[in-house]
């Protein structure tokens, strides 16, 4: 697996670069050329994104005029910004022997294992993608990692957003991922201290490498 660190990059620029890699991977598959699975990690300047089946009314208000971009991933509305690790796996699921459901399961598993390394117990939430804290308790459950993907010809793009030191106030402007009764959290919020994001990026890559062989 190839790891690419795009640093801090504008969302629309990252989307263009992703689509180029995604389309090239599909073209190579059709020509019988092996696809090199690539995990892209980055951060974005503040932006809201709305999935292809999302509902614009989940954008409640935007006093700071942060851009809202419609995109072709699954899922509803979410926020990206500094202090958040965004991951874009460009993976050929056929070579990995994964179906779409097991792919999402293993993305969640990788993030759950990263969080466990830092003493945070995270789980899945029935009926919702992503990684949650107190997922077994609907009254207290709060999302720490959102997942929204696109898949064509068994090649994936888009991915996940893990809140590390993210400013959670920006989530107050939306119904995150379409939920009106669930909270959002970050590693910093759960542990009460700012964390070294470069170190956590390395942990993300290590657990993805372990779970996607």
Notable characteristics:
BirA Bifunctional Protein, domain 2, 213 residues, eight-stranded mixed beta sheet, globular, single chain, alpha/beta, 11 strands, 5 helices
What does this structure look like?
By secondary structure, this protein is α/β, with parallel strands linked by helices. It has helices spanning about 10-30, 95, 100-115, 185-190, 195-210; strands at about 1-10, 40-45, 45-50, 70, 75-80, 85-90, 125, 130-135, 140-150, 155-165, 185. The strands form 2 sheets. Strands 1, 2, 6, 7, 8, 9, 10 and 11 form an 8-stranded mixed beta sheet that branches. A 3-stranded mixed beta sheet has the order 4-3-5, with no helix packed on it. A hairpin with a 2-residue loop joins strand 7 and strand 8 (about 130-135). Helix 3 packs across helix 5. The longest helix is centred in the N-terminal third of the chain and has 20 residues, at about 10-30.
Order of helices and strands: EHEEEEEHHEEEEEHH
Total count of strands: 11
CATH superfamily: Bira Bifunctional Protein, Domain 2
Mean pLDDT: 94
Q: Under the CATH scheme, which architecture would be assigned?
A: 2-Layer Sandwich
The fraction of residues assigned to DSSP E strands is 25-35%
Rg, rounded, reads 16 Å
The percentage helix is: 25-40%
How does the major sheet shape up? Answer: 8 strands, mixed
Tertiary shape? globular
Helix count?
A: 5
Indicate the low-confidence ranges by residue numbers: none
The CATH class name reads Alpha Beta
- Oligomerization category of the chains in this entry: single chain
How far the N terminus sits from the C terminus, by CA atoms, comes to: 8 Å
CATH topology: BirA Bifunctional Protein, domain 2
Computed structural class: alpha/beta
Q: What is the total domain count? A: 1
């Amino acid at each position: 697996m190839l790891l690419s660190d795009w640093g801090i990059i504008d969302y629309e620029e990252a989307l263009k670069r992703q689509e180029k890699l995604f389309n090239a991977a599909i073209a190579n598959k059709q020509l019988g050329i092996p696809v090199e699975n690539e995990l892209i990690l980055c951060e974005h300047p503040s932006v809201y994104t709305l999935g292809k089946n999302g509902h614009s009314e989940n954008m409640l208000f935007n006093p700071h005029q942060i851009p809202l971009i419609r995109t072709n991933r699954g899922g509803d509305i979410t926020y990206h910004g500094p202090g958040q690790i965004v991951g874009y796996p460009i993976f050929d699921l056929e070579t990995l022997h994964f179906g779409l459901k097991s792919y999402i399961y293993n993305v969640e598993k990788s993030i759950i294992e990263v969080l466990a390394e830092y003493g945070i117990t995270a789980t899945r939430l029935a009926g919702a993608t992503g990684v949650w804290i107190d997922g077994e308790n609907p009254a207290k459950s709060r999302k720490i990692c959102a997942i929204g993907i696109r898949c064509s010809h068994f090649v994936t793009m888009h991915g996940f957003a893990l809140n590390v030191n993210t400013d959670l106030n920006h989530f107050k402007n939306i119904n995150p991922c379409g939920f009106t009764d669930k909270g959002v959290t970050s590693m910093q919020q759960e542990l009460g201290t700012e964390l070294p994001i470069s170190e956590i990026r390395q942990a993300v890559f290590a657990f993805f490498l372990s779970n996607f062989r």
